[in-house]
Write a structure and sequence with these properties.
Pfam families: Methyltransf_11 (PF08241). The protein is of the alpha/beta class. The protein has three helices and six strands, in the order E-H-E-E-H-E-H-E-E. About 20% of the residues lie in helices and about 35% in strands.
Length: about 160
């Protein structure tokens, strides 16, 4: 979808060499790097990207919410961050932790929330217990933040 909408310079990271090979086979990425989010720094300089997305990885047993400052580090001032997480029962604790960190960063002036949108049919459920009211799907949330510009200091 990004490529179809005109985004042509895409970089990707994943903790799995196999997933990177799958991504490479699409021909959509200019750069793919092995990196375990939350345990090692992203392989990019500070303020490098106009937009950063993390989709399908912010969840219980996956990427820790402590990764957020690192995502901010590689985003240009004024740049966008699009993050997603699930709202299913097994991810509630993680979602609460994630939202606490999101809020802390917003209160500190690091970024501004542009959107937090619930998506009812986020992905197919793998068990009936995870399904939202028997729909066969689980719900999720899309968050979009804008990194705040660095305040200009008065000289003198």
């Amino acid at each position: 979808q990004l490529h179809r909408r005109g985004f042509r310079c895409l970089h990707g990271v994943d903790g799995s060499a196999g997933m990177l090979e799958q991504a490479r086979s699409t021909g959509l990425y200019q750069e793919l790097r092995l990196c375990v989010l939350g345990t090692e720094p992203l392989p990019a300089p500070a303020e490098h990207y106009d937009a950063v997305t993390v989709v399908g990885a912010l969840g219980e047993g996956q990427v820790p919410s402590t990764v957020l400052p690192e995502l901010l580090r590689v985003t240009k001032p004024g740049g966008l961050l699009c993050l997603t997480t699930r709202s299913n029962p097994s991810n509630r604790r993680y979602k609460a932790e994630l939202e606490a960190v999101l809020g802390q960063l917003e209160r500190s002036g690091a970024w501004q929330k542009l959107l937090a949108q619930e998506v009812e049919y986020w992905e197919r459920a793998t068990t009936e217990e995870e399904s939202t009211q028997g729909t066969g799907y689980i719900s999720g949330v899309v968050y979009i933040y804008q990194k705040c510009p660095v305040p200009h200091l008065e000289e003198g």
